[in-house]
Amino acid sequence: MFLKGDGRLARQQARANVECRLLGTNSPVPTHAAQKDPMNVDGPLLVVSPHLDDAVLSCGLLLASHPAATVCTIFTSAPEADMITDWDRASGFAGAFEAMRARRTEDVRALSALRASPIHLPFCDAQYLSSPSREALVAALRATFVEVKPATVLFPLGLFHSDHTMASDACLAALRSFKDPAAYAYEDLPYRNIPGVIQERLATMLEQRIKVSPADMADAGTHAPHQQLKQAALGRYASQLRAFGPEGRAALDSPERYWLFRAANESGSRRD
Hints:
This protein has about 270 residues and is of the alpha/beta class. The chain has one domain (about 5-260): 3-Layer(aba) Sandwich (Rossmann fold). It has helices at about 5-20, 55-65, 85-90, 95-115, 135-150, 160-175, 195-205, 225-235, 240-250, and strands at about 35-40, 45-50, 70-75, 115-120, 150-155, 180-185, 210-215, 260. The chain is globular, with a radius of gyration of 18 Å. Residues about 1-30 and about 265-270 have low confidence and may be disordered.
């Protein structure tokens, strides 16, 4: 995502290019099964977000309908040495230090529109070539669960992007230490538009004996005030909207979809 000639960097560049194209795609999204379990979001709500905008992109309507939620974003730190990536450049920044400072500020402002509180974990995302260990990430999430004491946890299904998959896997691992929270995954926008990516992720989870079923968020997405709040929050991620471009911004208005992770005493185990 940064320089030419290095194989790992070239793969990061290709991933970033795909991300930009996906935001404008009209690829069909796999049908969310008609038989759904109702979402019961009672008590404190914690949403885990890989990057500084993912929670609002993928579940902003749910956040708008449940004020006082907490959003824990994992990858919010700059690398030790400043660098410039294509995505940060497209966002209008001169380097990673400037980018992450501005993006954390944007996130605080965006979540305030939804009356949600931010938690920013001190990890770098993949574009900075300094991803955390799985152990460090799981430990930080466990500490967050202890601090927030959520009744409901939402986290990314973990589609396509390495940061999203890492975040999803770490949440599943951290949840093994807790019996009380209801656990739901949200479909990661924009990656769910890739044909077959949802089925591939669900198949991987099934191989790990993790069973999920579609969840119904009831009428949270049908209320105009909730839609207006989500759009207001999205508008505060000015740098990211700049990088998405006009086609990408138009593609951000997409239905939210969720999956329920089954408890150990139900049909399968969500945490085995």
